[in-house]
Amino acid sequence: MFKDSINQSRQQGIGMTSERTRLRMIAELRDLGIKDLSVLHVMSKLPRHMFVDEAISCRAYENTALPIGHGQTISQPYTVALMTQTLLNKPRKNVLEIGTGCGYQTAVLSQLVDSIVSVECILKLHRRARDLVYDLGVRNVKFRHGDGFGGSAEHAPYDGILAAAVSDDVPQELIDQLAEGGRIVMPVSKNGSQWLIIIDKIGGRVVSQDLEAVRFVPRLSGLY
Questions:
Q1: Is position 159 within any domain?
Q2: What domain range is 152 assigned to?
């Protein structure tokens, strides 16, 4: 699945970063309702502790969001699993990810779709995630530094779009770049709360539904 970095992480992964700890995380995800076996398998093999600072790596397999610097976080494992499972309700070939962050969600998706365009507006995070994901042997991701909420028309249309920051609305650019039969999964602010929503493009029309309440970092405007 992933190259030698996984084996190296296992050798280094004693205590709270061990394979046993990852499997406890997977058991918790199952208990919380994650049923997609492919998603669970990928997350059981991916060393989440490599995506956070070494000082907090002992918490990497807790079901919680953790800071990754620059006011951003790595989403809790349940949220990553839920969004991935929801996006991949059917096979998706070409996916746009908005908010690369540390690259953990990117790495999960990379094993389940043909190609990804991942856009991050914070340059240091973009570079760090790109290098780490490439070091894991992943080669089906195109990393871009930019505002992902404007999409990436160069590689559109997308079978799936996933956003990891909350927005006040769903930008029209994303809907325009979504393929027929495609799906968007993203958090949106509604009446002071955040909701994870699903948008499907069916027969040229957009159908939206709320999934569940969530908590994400806000969308940033501009490049950093």
A1: yes
A2: 4-213
Instruction: Report the distance separating Cα 218 and Cα 166, nearest Å.
Output: 5
3-state secondary structure string across 135-201: HCCCCCEEEEECCHHHCCHHHCCEEEEEECCEECCCCHHHHHCEEEEEEEEEEEEECCEEEEEEEEE
CATH number of the domain bearing residue 69 = 3.40.50.150
From CA 113, how far away is CA 97, in angstroms rounded?
Answer: 12
The answer to whether residue 97 is domain-embedded is yes
Residues noted as catalytic: 75
**Is residue 6 helix, strand or coil?**
helix
Task: Dump pLDDT digits (tens) for 42-89.
Answer: 999 999 999 999 999 999 999 999 999 999 999 999 999 999 999 999
Tokens 């949106």 correspond to 188
Note the pLDDT tens digit of each residue in 13-34.
444 567 788 999 999 999 999 9
Q: Is residue 199 part of a domain?
A: yes
